[in-house]
Write a structure and sequence with these properties.
Elements: E1 5-11, E2 16-22, E3 30-35, E4 43-48, E5 51-56, H1 62-76, E6 83-88, E7 99-100, H2 103-111, H3 120-133, E8 139-143, H4 153-156, H5 162-166, H6 177-191, E9 199-205, E10 209-215, E11 218-222, H7 245-253, H8 257-266, H9 269-274, H10 280-288, H11 292-312, E12 321-325, H12 326-331, H13 333-341, H14 352-357, E13 364-365, E14 374-376, H15 381-394
Parallel strand pairs: 1-6, 6-8, 9-12, 12-14
Antiparallel strand pairs: 1-2, 2-3, 3-4, 4-5, 7-8, 9-10, 10-11, 13-14
The structure holds adenosine monophosphate.
């Protein structure tokens, strides 16, 4: 059997990210992005091998954009596409793993939409369009939440009245599961430890950030909760705040729930603390130049991350390594250094040269002698989605 090709689709409200994954190739034959979908400025960018191209697709909706990218994907796959893997943000309690899409699955994704009102409807638009365009192809949904369905109840329940969980699904779900899963498996490979007998702390640090405790290949706790707002400081998201902040701001400033949601999701985090940017690269430069807001944002980010990792350690019987991933985790030597300075009780020590070497896609172990393992592992959510899709095709 020749190496199979999976088209991976990640449909947002106004964008579609896509990649063609060939099971025998380390790099993607094709990857790209449709932006500003549904507007007069809609545009499709893709990279086929080393060649980058763009095409204006004014007014194209998700389906029209997918129609345009189909021939490009078919050509890149040599006319042989074997399946499509869709990223879906929220699977609620319905899904403990990836699944082949049928009517029942579509209904369950729709039923979970209330839990992710910005994401699931956009994911569904992509699935509907792809199913209409490729009716004969197996399609698989891969959920950000599914990997965390192995959390024990004492980790996933909030201390609120039971009927809110039983009747209204109020519990912790966790996100970034595809990434935490991928990097922990990859770390086991890199260290030659068996997946089913290894324990990891993972820190996925991108625009969204979360930590996870992984025991023998299963998530036991994670920092995000009912929604992707809980936990760490992120690019524009606050992470944890006192739950009474809502009523306080309502009482004192007269803010509505929508205003408070917007502030916590879009105007907080690194952006809110620094007053400058949500982009860590900008903040690192400003910090070196002495910008007080950038310095504070960096310090709060690292301290809160360390605190979260220390609390995640409660879920582990032993620690085989701490893994950094995501745009910040893979690239920021300064964040890795500062975070571990707050975790002295764990005896973490970094090898400065190894830490400096790990950037721009270079991974590896970065601890000094005598320290527990610390690894930088570039994440690859597209590859994990393709691997899940292939596993379901084999089944
Ligand atoms: P992601 O969402 O995984 O693409 O990560 C985005 C975040 O990674 C942004 O905050 C970027 O500033 C950060 N990032 C990307 N490259 C670097 C770098 N070379 N150094 C520091 N931060 C980086």
């Amino acid at each position: 059997m020749s190496a199979r090709n999976i088209l991976v689709i990640n449909c947002g409200s106004s964008s579609i990210k896509f990649a063609l994954v060939n099971e025998a190739q380390a790099t993607f034959p094709l990857q790209g992005l449709a932006e500003r979908v549904g507007t007069p400025e809609a545009v499709l960018h893709w990279q086929l091998g080393d060649t980058k191209q763009s095409l204006n697709i004014p007014g194209a909706d998700h389906r029209a954009a997918l129609e345009r990218l189909l021939p490009v994907a078919q050509e890149a796959a040599g006319g042989k596409l074997d399946g499509i893997g869709h990223r879906v943000v929220h699977g609620g309690e319905h899904f403990t793993g990836s699944t082949l899409i049928d009517e029942a699955v579509l209904k369950a994704i729709r039923d979970s939409a209330q839990l992710a009102p910005l994401h699931n409807p956009a994911n569904l638009v992509g699935i509907d369009a792809a199913m209409a365009l490729f009716p004969g192809l197996p399609q698989v949904s891969v959920f950000d939440t599914a990997f965390h369905q192995t959390m024990p109840e004492h980790a996933f329940r909030y201390a609120v009245p039971e009927f809110l969980y039983k009747e209204h699904s109020v519990r912790r779900y966790g996100f970034h599961g595809t990434s935490h899963n991928f990097v922990s498996k990859r770390a086991a490979e890199m260290t030659e430890l068996p997946v089913d007998d290894s324990c990891w702390l993972t820190a996925h640090l991108g625009n969204g950030c979360s930590t996870c405790a992984i025991v023998n290949g299963e998530s036991r706790d994670t920092s995000m909760g009912l929604t992707p707002l809980e936990g760490l400081v992120m690019g524009t998201r606050s992470g944890d705040v006192d739950p009474n902040l809502h009523s306080y701001l309502n009482r004192t400033l007269g803010w509505s729930l929508e205003q408070i949601d917007r502030m916590l999701n879009h105007d907080s985090g690194l952006k809110g603390l620094s007053g400058l940017s949500n982009d860590l690269r900008t903040l690192q430069e400003a910090r070196v130049a002495g910008h007080a807001g950038a310095t504070l944002a960096f310090e709060v980010f690292c301290y809160r991350l360390a605190k979260s990792l220390a609390s995640m350690a409660c879920a582990l019987p032993k620690l085989d390594g701490l893994i950094f991933t995501g745009g910040i985790g893979e690239n920021s030597m300064a964040v890795r250094t500062r975070t571990l300075e707050h975790l002295k009780l764990f005896n973490f020590k970094l090898d400065e040269e190894a830490n400096a070497r790990c950037t721009r896609g270079v991974g590896g172990e970065i601890q000094a002698a005598g320290s527990p393992r610390v690894l930088v592992v570039p994440t690859n959510e597209e590859r994990q989605i393709a691997l899940d899709t292939l596993a379901l095709l084999d089944a």
